[in-house]
Amino acid sequence: MKLPETIKIGFQIWRIEIDDLSREDDRRGVTFKEKQLIKLDPTLPEESKKITLWHEIKHAIAEFLGIDGDRKYDEEEWITRMSGMEITVLDENKELREFLWGSGEEKNLEQNGG
């Protein structure tokens, strides 16, 4: 599936780019909050791209919700604050869902013997 070029997080539009991250301390993905930009390493295998993209999206969500600062949250509070926005991001970004899980047609073909 195709990597989305942008995603909506709240009222913000974040760009997603594939770029050489060798100057970023061996990271596979980076979130540039001030630019609303997520960059992924071009050498990542497809499954790793999916995991890394979702990891970076969670950083962007935390930024949007204002919970990415120095304050430490307990696990329950963190999950409660993140969950609703994660569902919203998935709901509002069809291309992201298709990139992460496919369109669903592949599974229908498999189940129907095609």
Concise synopsis of the structure shown:
The chain has 114 residues and is α+β, with helices and mostly antiparallel strands. The protein has one domain: Zincin-like (2-Layer Sandwich). The chain has helices spanning 46-65, 75-92, 94-101, 105-111; strands at residues 6-9, 12-18, 29-32, 37-40.
Number of helices: 4
Q: From the alpha carbons, calculate the radius of gyration and give it in angstroms.
A: 15 Å
Q: What count of structural domains? A: 1
Task: Indicate the CATH topology.
Answer: Zincin-like
Considering DSSP H and I runs of 4 or more, what fraction of the residues is helical?
Answer: 40-55%
How many runs of DSSP E, i.e. beta strands?
A: 4
User: How are the strands of the biggest sheet laid out side by side?
Assistant: 1-2-4-3
